[in-house]
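Please, structure for the following, as C-alpha cells.
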Amino acid sequence: MKEIFVRTDDNIKIAFNLYSENKDECLLICPGWFMTKDSKPFYDMAEEFSKTFDTAVMDFRGHGRSRGVYTFTSNEVKDIEAVIKYLRQKYKKLCLMGFSLGGALGIIYCAQDKEIDKLIAVSAPSDFWKIENRMWHPDAWIPTLFKKFDPLRWFTIRAGSPFGKKIKPIDVVKNIKCPILFIAGSKDPTVLPWHTEKLFKEALPPKKYELFQNCRHAEDLFMEDKDKFMKVCLDFLTQS
C-alpha cells in the first residue's frame, strides 16, 4: 500500500491510499463523514477488494491526512475529481464506491463524469437536509462504541459550515449513465432505507437495489455481514 497526495482545483491537499498490484482496473472507495482511509473498517475493506482489483481509499478534506475543512458535500466533489484525475493516468477501468455522504458525493460526481464504469452507493442520503441522524438511538452509538472506537481519528476531523450550497443526489441520480448498485441497511438509524429506495426509483437502468436485513449504516454493513457484502459487491463489479 502506498499513500499518495494530490491537489484539488481549489488547492486542497487530498490523501489517498493505493493498494496496487498493477491491475487494469481500480476501485475508488469514498468514506463518509467522520471516517478516514486509515479507519479499521476501510483498511480491512481495501485489503479484501484489493484481492480482485487495485483499490484506492481516500480522505475527504477535513479528514485524516487531507487538509482543509469538511463542507458536508458542498465542495468535496473536487476531492474525488483530483483522485480520479490521478488514477486515470494508470487505469483503463475505474469504479467508485461511496458510503453515506461519500455515497452522496459518488452520485453527484458520477452524474457529471460519464466515464466511470460502475458505481456502488451504500447508505447514501437522497438529500442532506433530510438525513435522520438519530445519534441517540442504540443502533447509532453501539457500533461506534464497540466496533469503530478510534479516538485518534477524531482529532483529525475538521468540520466547516454545513450551510453551503449543495446538490441533492435525488436531483441528479437520473443523469448517471453507468450501472449503479444501491445498498442499504434495514436498521440504519442515520440514513433510513427510504433514501436508497427513492434514489433507486429515480435512477436509470441498469441498476440494482440490495437491502441488508438487521444491518445498520454504511461501513457497518461490511462489518456486520462481511461475506454477503463482499459477494454482492464483487458480483456487481465483475459482471460484464
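Residues 2-238 form a domain with the Rossmann fold fold (CATH 3.40.50.1820). The two ends are 28 Å apart (CA to CA).
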